[in-house]
Every structure is written in C-alpha cells, then in structure tokens.
Amino acid sequence: MTADKDFTFEPVPSDPPIVEAVPTSAPDFTASGNKNDENPSDTAILVGCGLAGWMVGGPFLALLTALGGNWAKKKQGPFGESTRAIGRITDAAGKKAKDEQLFCKLKASVRSLFDRKRSRCEHCESSNNVNLL
To answer: What are the tens digits of pLDDT across the range 22-48?
Structure first.
C-alpha cells in the first residue's frame, strides 16, 4: 500500500477578535423570596425525610430520618439546607397533588375495584364526568 506522506503544518495567521465586555448584574437563582418557600411546613419536612428514609432502609430508618429532619430544619449548614430542600420538594408535590385532585382520583379508582357500577367521587364526577366501569 502506497501513500503520499508529505504532510506539512503551516499556522494560519489571524488577528484575535476584539470583544467589548459589558458589565451586567448577576442573575438571581435563589427562590422567589417568598418566606413560605424558604421555610417549608413541618409536615412537608417530616413526610419528605420519612419517605426518603423508608426508601433507603425501611420503617425504622423512616422514623429516624423524619425525626432527624425535624431536628435539622433550623440548623445552618448542609444538613439543614438539605432538609429544607426536601421539605420544599415535598411541599411542591403536595400542592400539585391537591391541584390534580389526586386523592379523590385514588379513592375513585380503589372503589371501582369493588363497585363495578360507577365512581362515587362527587368532585371528580361533577368536574370531569369521569365514570369508571
């Protein structure tokens, strides 16, 4: 196999581009400043930490992480910050579930397993006309 191995390297002369720096303010990536968003409810912290502990180690660790989260919520540093973050996530999930009427839909689906006629969730039936067979 023959190949032409006459390679050369020549740098291409170029002038650096001229860029003008324009100072801007740093974007604010923190929470909206609402005090309710900064400090989630005690219930959200207990449920979030307990659920995380349950997934990792079962009911005993769920109890320990829920109580530990309740203790750490007012502390400064990584433990307190992570506990408040879990509480904010749980609080947002609870608000979304309330907006979607998740509990009502869950009750209707469980009832439909035992009652084959129709759903008994009045709120779901009046707003969505949901009939489960």
So the answer is: 888 776 666 554 444 578 889 999 999
Residues found in the chain:
133
Q: What is the DSSP string of 24-93?
A: -PPP--S--S-HHHHS--HHHHHHHHHHHHHHHH-HHHHHHHHHHHHHHTT--SHHHHHHHHHHHHHHHH
Q: How is residue 13 written in tokens? A: 């002369």
Whole-model pTM: value is 0.55
Quote the CA–CA distance of 126 and 133 in Å, as a whole number: 17
Report the distance separating Cα 21 and Cα 62, nearest Å.
Answer: 52
Name the residue type at position 2. T
